Amino acid sequence: MSTITVGGYRIAGRMSDRDLTLIDTQSAFADAIRTLFAQIRPRRIIETGTYLGTGTTTIIASALRELGIDDARFLSIEVNPEHLNKARANLARAGLSVELLHGLSVPRSLLPSIQQIERELVKTVLADGLIVDHEETNRARLYYNETNFDDLPDDLLGQAIRRFDGRPDFVLLDSAGHMGSIEFSYLIEQLRGPCYIALDDVHHVKHYRSFELIKRDRRFEIVAARQEKFGFCIARFDPARDSTTGALPCLGSTARGT
């Protein structure tokens, strides 16, 4: 993929005094999820990036409760132990039912090294005007630290997909900023049937590459896409349809540390 001169990124922290990592439960993204759930009534749901449990995790769990989808299984993955503990408390306080999984979403071998992150997200720019989370001087280190948990289990996304026999109904990917295209590529390789995929932050380095693939790959049908905050997309993926593209280039395409 072509890149442009370094300097074209926008830093999330400079754009607003609000915490832009939080997702409003009354947002357009929330409305789109509720509308979709009313139509498809999903029973097998996966999310990466629980964070504090008050954003998309609450949106999904609340939609299931409001629609009376009592037989759904909702698995949400979080790697940071402090975030996980806060999420567990927040969800319990709200009376929401979510099965929280603690560990890395993808196989550890897919994690990018700090050198790869530096090369891909500091020394080059994917597209002018995209959002990144951190200043240039410490971006690679901070992103790397978000998934640097050597003592935790890995491949929880793969395990969750296999628990649903390769056929989850809905998957939302909202993990660390440098992990979007890695999770996305791994997800679509594992799916064995049609699935609705939601991406948060498609105008961010997290899911810019994922969204570009969705727009040109005939296996995807876009259901909803908005500019809200850093942008979101919901698309239906059917692995049985012919693709018009090759593989998605992404961070971590080689083994960690190389």
CATH architecture label name of one domain:
3-Layer(aba) Sandwich
Number of strands: 9
**Tally of individual helices:** 9
> Largest sheet at a glance?
7 strands, mixed
CATH domain fold name of one domain: Rossmann fold
The string of secondary-structure elements, in order, is EHHEHEHEHEHHEHEHEE
Q: How many angstroms separate the termini?
A: 20 Å
Choose one word for the global shape.
Answer: globular
What's the assembly state of these chains? single chain
Could you state the CATH homologous superfamily of one domain? Vaccinia Virus protein VP39
Radius of gyration: 17 Å
Q: Which residue ranges are poorly predicted, with pLDDT under 50 across at least 5 consecutive positions?
A: 1-6, 253-258
Helical percent range? 25-40%
SSE order and pairing:
Layout: E1 10-11, H1 12-15, H2 28-40, E2 44-48, H3 56-66, E3 73-78, H4 81-94, E4 99-102, H5 114-121, E5 131-132, H6 139-146, H7 156-163, E6 170-173, H8 180-190, E7 195-200, H9 208-216, E8 220-226, E9 232-237
Parallel strand pairs: 1-5, 2-3, 2-6, 3-4, 6-7
Antiparallel strand pairs: 7-9, 8-9
Record keyword descriptors for this entry:
single chain, 258 residues, alpha/beta, Rossmann fold, seven-stranded mixed beta sheet, two-stranded parallel ribbon, 9 helices, globular, disordered N terminus, disordered C terminus
